[in-house]
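S1.2 Input.
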Amino acid sequence: MSKETMSTPPRGIISAQEAEKLSENWTNLRKTTNDQVACNAGDNRSSWYSLEDLTNFIDSVKTSHPNANGLRFYLGVDTSVGKGGHTTIFMVPTELNQKKNRSYDILKADGLDDGLAGYPPTAAYPQQ
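S1.3 Output.
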């Protein structure tokens, strides 16, 4: 990629070492409690989405909701995988509330879920 075609990196880029530390923090602070709630079967630690699905979702949000300004990611529990369920991550589009200068969920908009769980679901970062 030439310098002329390189895009500006998004805000919030973190290094692999920072990602590993965040994952380690989750393990140290949340894993035991989370696993107990998941009936000692271990909970899902990650969700994978293809670039194609993410791009298509963003394109559909831009088309359906021209005032959308971002996406909000939520944690949920998918109970279709068993009694305790597995954590999932879903995303919904947001738009700016001009009066409050805050982004709010677009309530009637479709969200995106159905990312693939890590393998195994309990695997921490990095997955190889």
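S1.4 Remarks. The radius of gyration is 17 Å.
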